[in-house]
Design brief:
Layout: H1 3-17, E1 19-22, E2 25-28, H2 29-32, H3 35-44, H4 50-60, E3 62-65, E4 70-73, H5 80-91
Antiparallel strand pairs: 1-2, 3-4
Amino acid sequence: MNSQMQISDLENIISEKIFIKIEKWNLYLGDAGLARNLALECISNLDKGSQQAAKLGLEAIKVKIGDGNQTILLSKLITASQICDLEEILGNL
């Protein structure tokens, strides 16, 4: 599988399975426009293992809040179970 296809496949999986958790509200990363960036970050660190790739990817993405004047790291908005799900997804690549 070529790398472009792998990135697109990973983006699609992340879009459907990983979400931001705010109170009782789930915003899937595909709907938030964050899945592609996370896929790229994770793939670029995959040689470090799935756990490290997930951690580095989530810490590399800054989520704009409001008008974009403030940002929060994506890692702060993802639950522990979602991080495990992302690690599992990356482990299956």
